[in-house]
Amino acid sequence: MKFNSKGGDIMLYRLKQFISVGLLAGLAVLTGCVTAGASPGKSAGAGGFPENVVYHVNDSSIARLALNNVKNHLSANPQAHIVVVTHGKGVDFLLEGAKDQQGNPFDITAQELKAKGVEFDVCNNTLVGRKIDPKTVIPEAKIVPSGVAEISKLQSLEHYSYVKP
């Protein structure tokens, strides 16, 4: 392919711009200047980036396992920002009076984890579809329009890692 000097100069100029932008972005990443998805009040993890993680719970029969995973995660990295997103039968453990198979209430664990910065999200579509009164959701949890959409947003827009216990 042949270029005249004017066309070749334009192509070379655009190539230099592209390379410069790429190098600057790479430098920002290497030096930790970029903190996409950073949470207010949370310090950065290794490499200058915060550790943001979304735990997906759609079945309350694994809720105790999920909460134990979150506790262990925070033991390994107390600075991690964790969001537990629930939908379907996964919302049940975040309802008033919910207990695990041994009769232990879930709300106490949710209170402890909330105090450590963990967020709990409950899917409104599930509440509506299952005719669950939103007033029965424990105060430690917030209602989001869609659990699945929340997970997608956290992963794609806020760069959260995904964990499915």
**What is the radius of gyration?**
22 Å
Largest sheet: 5 strands, parallel
Q: What is the terminal separation in angstroms?
A: 55 Å
Low-confidence stretches: 21-43
What fraction of residues sit in β-strands? 15-25%
Overall pLDDT metric: 83
Question: What's the structural blueprint in terms of helices and strands?
Answer:
Layout: H1 5-31, E1 52-59, H2 63-76, E2 81-89, H3 106-115, E3 119-123, H4 124-129, E4 141-144, H5 147-156, E5 161-163
What does this structure look like?
The chain has 165 residues and is of the alpha/beta class. Helix content is 41%, strand content 18%. It has helices spanning 5-31, 63-76, 106-115, 124-129, 147-156, and strands at residues 52-59, 81-89, 119-123, 141-144, 161-163. The chain has a five-stranded parallel beta sheet, with helices on both faces. Helix 4 links the parallel strand 3 (119-123) and strand 4. It is globular, with a radius of gyration of 22 Å.
Brief overview:
This protein is an alpha/beta fold and 165 residues long. It contains five helices and five strands. It has a five-stranded parallel beta sheet with strand order 4-3-2-1-5, sandwiched between helices.
